């Protein structure tokens, strides 16, 4: 700034010689305006520099904050992905899982839960016949035309009928408690409890076929019971 003033002063001194006073005054005015412009430009330049520095600082600060926030979001997403899924409804009519179809070595389809497997039945039970039977269960020799008793391996020496499975044919259906009605393959299955035992019954021709499971059974489920009933006929 001092150099500019000195140059302008020297220029003015040399230029004054031989110039009318009016021209001199005009030149002085123009010089003052030039000085004011220079000062204004310096102020504007200072403001622009400060604004640029402030913008750069804010941009760097926001970028650092963004990177830090991104890491937090990634960690949160991983925690959410590792969270266990909500449990499905655990209410079931019987405690065991649904029957799972499989294939035996002979090619016959079987149905099983955790401990019960329905396999092809090779026995003849008088008037009541079933193409499926629980594996290892045997029919008692006292079978009649309307009643068959199957004994599980755990009750071979027991005389308690309630510990065994009973099939009965009757002209009328029994009244069940806590009834669950389902329709499958054109048959209507009625599942519930009768005399304190899990029971299922279905209409076969003109006759009702009822199956009573052993007391306190936890191995059977509704799907196994329906499949067993569906495989039976009454002659």
General description of the model:
By secondary structure, the protein is of the alpha+beta class. Helix content is 37%, strand content 27%. It has a seven-stranded antiparallel beta sheet, with helices on one face. A four-stranded antiparallel beta sheet has the order 1-2-3-5, with helices on one face. A two-stranded antiparallel ribbon has the order 4-13. Strand 9 and strand 10 form a beta hairpin.
Summarize the structure.
The protein has about 240 residues and is an alpha+beta fold. About 35% of the residues lie in helices and about 25% in strands. It has a seven-stranded antiparallel beta sheet, with helices on one face. Strands 1-2-3-5 form a four-stranded antiparallel beta sheet, covered by helices on one side. The protein has a two-stranded antiparallel ribbon with strand order 4-13.
